[in-house]
Design a protein that fits this description.
Number of strands: 7
Largest sheet: 7 strands, mixed
Helix content: 25-40%
Order of helices and strands: EHHHEEEHEHEE
Distance between the termini: 12 Å
């Protein structure tokens, strides 16, 4: 897409959470699938917990109000850690940079002065390229426990400097 839409971030609504749980990603990205909404809600896990959803989760919408993606902004000591997901049928369409920049701006608005970072599986080259285009740089590598066992991750930190402005195209 030549002109990605200007996304907007809003607090995640329950209806958006339900839709996100229905998203199906092709392998190997199917690792990012959430459990069914009713299970998330009954166990109050992640955005199935109304308070956590209200405090940490965003829906990212197109100007027409279509759900394009979501994010978790997890506040830590001096750091806002992002978790990001995009609607599966929009992945690889050139929309990721704009979506990520919208989320970063919301994280900076909510937690001024915080560093913004994220963790990404090292094999997810598509996401890594998108994050780099949005101003993130790899700063560390380590293993984390996942439902599939320990896996290697990069930590990427957002840098808003003159050499990588957030609005670069």
């Amino acid at each position: 897409m030549n002109n990605p839409p200007a996304f907007k971030a809003i607090p995640m609504e329950e209806s958006h959470a339900q839709v996100i749980c229905s998203w199906v990603y092709p392998p190997p990205y199917d690792i990012y699938k959430f459990p069914p909404w009713e299970r998330m809600k009954s166990l109050e896990i992640e955005f199935g917990d109304p308070q956590l959803r209200r405090e940490q989760y965003l829906s990212v919408l197109t100007p027409a109000g279509e759900l394009a993606g979501f994010a978790q902004i997890f506040p830590m000591e001096g750091v806002s850690r992002l978790g990001i997901g995009m609607r599966p049928d929009w992945c690889g369409q050139g929309l990721g940079k704009s979506l990520v920049q919208t989320i970063v701006q919301e994280a900076l608005r909510r937690y001024p002065g915080h560093e913004v970072d994220l963790e990404v599986l090292i094999w997810n080259e598509r996401a890594i390229r998108t994050y780099e285009k949005a101003g993130f740089r790899i700063t560390d590598q380590y293993e984390l426990r996942t439902p599939e066992g320990k896996m290697p991750f990069y930590c990427m930190v957002y840098h808003n400097d003159k050499s990588h402005p957030i609005d670069e195209t």
